[in-house]
Every structure is written in structure tokens, then in C-alpha cells.
Amino acid sequence: MPPLLAACGSNGSGQLAISHSQDANTLRPCCFHPSLDSVIGNAQVLDLVSASTHSLLLLNLNTDSADPGNTSLLLGAGINSVGQLGPRCALWDEVKAETRFKAVDLLGPLGLAQADWEPIKIASTWTSSLVVYQRSPRAALGSDSSAVKEEFAEQMVLASGSNDFGELGTTRALDEGSPSNSSAKPTMVDLGLRRGEWVERVEGGSRHFVAVISAGNGDARKQRVVGWGAARKGELDVSVLVGESAFEPPREAKGKGKGKSVARPLTLPPTELNLPIPVDTHITDMSIGASHTLILLANGDVLAWGSDTKGQITGLTEIRGVNGIAATWGGSYILKDHEIWSQGSNNQSQLLRQTLDSDSALEPVRIEEGWRARDLVAGSEHVIIVASREDDESVWTGGWNEHGNLGMGDQTDRHELTRVDIKTAFPELGGRVKIRDAWGGCAATWVWLDFDRV
User: Fold this and answer.
1) Per-residue pLDDT of the chain (454 residues; tens, 9 = 90+)
2) CA distances from 115 to 162, 225, 427 (A)
3) How far apart are CA 11 and CA 328, in angstroms?
4) Neighbour count for residue 259 (Cβ, 10 Å)
5) What Rg value do the Cα atoms of the chain yield, rounded?
6) Could you give the CA distance from residue 149 to residue 67 in angstroms, rounded to a whole number?
7) Sequence-ordered list of residues with C-beta below 8 angstroms from that of 53, at least 6 positions apart, any chain
8) Closest C-alpha to 302, from 282, 320, 279
9) How many angstroms separate the Cα of 209 from the Cα of each of 231, 305, 391?
10) Number of neighbours of residue 453 by Cβ within 10 angstroms
11) Most buried among 78, 240, 329, 391, using CB within 10 Å?
């Protein structure tokens, strides 16, 4: 059977893939198009991203390791109004909600064979998608054997959807006159990959992307960071970390308070961000809000830049011993010693406190006694925790709940972490619940479940 993936929350475009296009306030199982029945029986979830009207799912097909063919499959659900799920074709011939996951093909419109390229990384912004492809083993083996290693490492990055803020890696308007600068075909994003480099991580914010590019392997690998898209709110300005801005200050103007701020461009093409990464550590995780970015280093330090209008990045670079990070649109969260801490925007109880005041100071988030936080993720304005207690584990959520994205059976915000009743949501399965992974999206929660029948 396919992986048991469950979702709740905003679903007006069918992006939850639960066979209809109404919001869901409890976790419901995701559905797959019948054409996938023969290929996803033993599939494992590699990653999932969820935007305003669409979602992408990356599966590992669990193919025999002796087979050099592709082992991953890219699926999508939701609406394809601006090409965020690829150019409309036989499968996407109308702008209507696709309420089941089905295959997404970004290669065919570019004249590339799916057998030659394998999707390995996914990311999304509000109405754009980004996929990193790697040349498949079969394609590499078809070349001169002496070049197999080099060929196998070859990667390319494709983007599709709206380009309102240069999300597709170009500031050139696509299909001039079309709605939201939608793409007629996927765009190849030039990240300036050098020989031996590979995209290790990529994340999307509201209107921008950030990618971690690595060279080499293990702890000694070299890393650099590239960002593109919206830039006006500091999304791509790391001057707070390095002490100087790459952007020219405006000319001094007459009048009180004028001429003092940095004039940032509205958008930027792929641009290398000069992050102060110590030579003895490396990037292990990244999380992006609407206009700010958090990066976690292997030594437990955090790098943070971008908008600080809600105090979402104030003082974060001074924290040590961090184990995990997450970002809502205007908030930041850290996992440290199995405890959660929060700061930033709190107008919808996102910080999980008794008041609705935003706060630039980290404060601990309460969880029921005996439970220890294991994993931390965030949606647009809510938080999702996987916690364990002895031999039990469960999902806890809190924050904004307008679309039922907390999975509580209602639309009431929660100012403290509350346990999601997964067993009641799936009474027919029984047994002990195992949480394989969890993801947050735009007013959406996703959980990958296993049920150990004992």
C-alpha cells in the first residue's frame, strides 16, 4: 500500500490531496491517482512542501538497489493556475482543483527524458515550485565508464509557476501580459554550480528561495549559500551577520529621518550570500519565514537574517547548543535539550503564550509534563511538534487555526501545545502509532504515519 500520509487545514484548491476541496479540521488520509497504484506500493516519503494552492510530494519508490534506474517520483496536488505544477497538458488541461496526488512532469516540456533525470529536492513559495534534478544512474552508465562518477553528480534546478518577484531565478517577465507572469514552461535556474558541487538543501519563503550548495563530502565539505527572489524586506541581505551591506545606501536626502536606511532592490537573481560560517562547522538545517531565514550549524549555533519587524531574529545568533529550528511567517522557534523556545509575531497565538503580544525575547514553550520534544516544524502561522514519552509518541500543535490546520476538529486558535488525537482520527487501523515525519505548510499540517499492530 502507498505511504499513510495524512493532512489537515486549508484545502480550497485541493492541495491536501484528500479527494475534495473543502478545509479539513482533523487529519485525513491523502489520496493518490489510480495511475500510480502499480508504482507506489512500497514508497517512502522523502519530502513534502505545501504552498498557498498547491503541494509537492517526493517519494522514494524503494526500487531494488541493484537497479540503476530512477528511484524517486515527483507528485503534485492542488490548482495549476500559473504553472506551479508544470505547464498544463493532458493531466492538467483545466485550471481546476486536482484533489489527488498525481505525477508532475517538468522535464518533458524542455525536451528532457524522465529516465535520464531524477528529482531529489523540492521547495515552494506562494505560487511557485522548485525541483532539483540529478542525472540518473542509468543515464550515467550509458556514457563512458570513466565519466560515470562525474555524470552521476550532474544536477540541474528547474522552477515553474509565478515570477512576480523573480522566484524563477530571472527578473525577466515571462509570457508578458499573462496572469502573474506565469511560466509557459519550466525555467532552468542558474545557481552557478561548479565542478563537483551539488545542491544539499533548498527552502522557499513567501516569495524567495535559498539554497545551500556543497562541494565534497562529510564534515569537511565546503558550503556556500545562494538566494534569489524577493529582496526588499531584507530576505537576501546578510549585513546583520557580516557588519556591512552589499547594497548601496541611498543618497542623503533633506528632511528628518530620510536617507538613513539601506535601499534594497525589489528582487534579485541568484546571488551568493556571504555568510560567516566558521571553517570547523557546516550547515545542517534551514528554515524560512515570509521574509527571514534561519540556518542551524553543526556546532549548535544559529545564523539569522531578514525582516525583524516582529523581533523574529533579535538575539538568535547569541544562542548556543541549538538542536533544531523552525520559522513561521513572522516567528522563530528553536529546539534545545528537548525543549521549545519561541519569539516574534504572536497575533494568532503562534508563540504559544498566554498573551497575544509579539516579543523579541526567546521564552520557553510549555508542553505537558513527561513529554519531550523530538522534532520541530512550523507552518505559516502554527507550530507542529513530534514528542515522545517512554514508548509512546504523538503530534502536538498550537497557534493559528482558522482553517482547522491544528487537527483539533475545530477552528479555534491554541495558545499552548495540544495533543492531536491521531488514533481517533484513524480508528479502523488500531495499534500503536509511529510518527515517521511531519511537515507544516500554508495553514496546513502533514503527518507521515506507521501503525505497528501489537
Assistant:
1) 678 999 999 999 999 999 999 999 999 999 999 999 988 988 999 999 999 999 999 999 975 555 556 789 999 999 998 999 987 554 445 578 899 999 999 999 999 999 999 999 999 999 999 999 999 866 655 544 333 344 345 999 999 999 999 999 987 654 454 444 556 789 999 999 998 999 999 999 999 999 999 998 888 899 999 999 999 999 999 999 988 666 655 444 444 444 455 678 999 999 999 999 999 999 999 999 999 999 999 999 999 999 999 999 999 999 999 999 999 999 999 999 999 999 999 999 999 999 999 999 999 999 999 999 999 999 999 999 999 998 889 999 999 999 999 999 999 999 999 999 998 888 766 667 789 999 999 999 999 998 664 4
2) 27, 30, 40
3) 19
4) 12
5) 22
6) 17
7) 12, 13, 15, 78, 79, 81, 84, 127
8) 320
9) 10, 14, 38
10) 7
11) 78
* Measured CA distances, 55 to 11, 42, 48, 195, 299 (Å): 10, 21, 7, 32, 33
How far apart, in whole angstroms, are the C-alpha atoms of residue 124 and residue 129? Answer: 4
- β-pairing verdict for 339-344 and 359-365: antiparallel
| Nearest-angstrom CA–CA distance, 34 and 101 | 10
Cell of 347: 497575533
Q: Domains in the chain and their CATH numbers?
A: 4-452 (2.130.10.30)
Q: How far apart are CA 175 and CA 179, in angstroms?
A: 9
Give the residue from 327, 334, 332 showing the smallest Cα distance to 380.
327
Q: What Å distances lie between residue 49 and 11, 75, 122, 444, CA to CA?
A: 14, 11, 7, 10
The sign of the CA dihedral 244, 247, 251, 255 is: negative
Own/partner long-range contacts of 294-299 (Cβ < 8 Å, ≥24 apart)? 294/325, 294/326, 294/327, 294/332, 295/225, 295/325, 296/322, 296/324, 296/325, 298/219
DSSP state of 424: H
| Residue reference for cell 541611498 | 250
Residue 142: predicted pLDDT: 56
Q: How many residues does the chain have?
A: 454
Return the DSSP state at 313.
S
Put simply, whether the predicted model's pTM sits higher than 0.85 gets the answer yes
Whose CA is closest to 441, among 349, 301, 329?
329
**Cβ within 8 Å of residue 348, ≥6 positions away:** 356, 381, 399, 400, 402, 413
Cα 445 to Cα 384: distance, rounded to the nearest angstrom: 8
**Local structure of residue 269 (DSSP, 8 states):** E
Residue where the block lists cell 524560512 = 288
Helix (H, G, I), strand (E, B) or coil at 251: coil
Report the candidate in 225, 8, 209, 13 with the shortest Cα–Cα distance to residue 123: 209
| Structure letter (DSSP) for residue 148 | H
Return the C-alpha cell found at 420: 492531536
Angle at 323 between CA 322 and CA 327, to 5 degrees: 80
